[in-house]
Amino acid sequence: MPKIKNFFLNGQKYSTQHNITLFELITYFNYNLSLFVLEYNNSICNKTDWKNIFISKNDKIEIITIVGGG
After folding, report:
1. Cα–Cα distance measured from residue 35 to residue 50, given in angstroms and rounded to the nearest whole number
2. Considering just the CA atoms, what is the radius of gyration of the chain in Å?
3. pTM, rounded to two decimals
4. What 3-state DSSP class applies to 58?
5. CB–CB of 15/57 below 8 Å?
């Protein structure tokens, strides 16, 4: 039986039983990859690492979007 992993994205709880990477997660939610910073377990995560980091139990992911203005 697959093991369910709970994780938090922008403070909201989600669950998965699949092994997914950060890149797959943000692609699933249709984020524009050039307009945000990703915080993973309280540390800024480099974009080059997103395809190598798999979501684990109780991970905390925050998407910080960049907003232009004047």
Report:
1. 15
2. 13
3. 0.86
4. coil
5. no
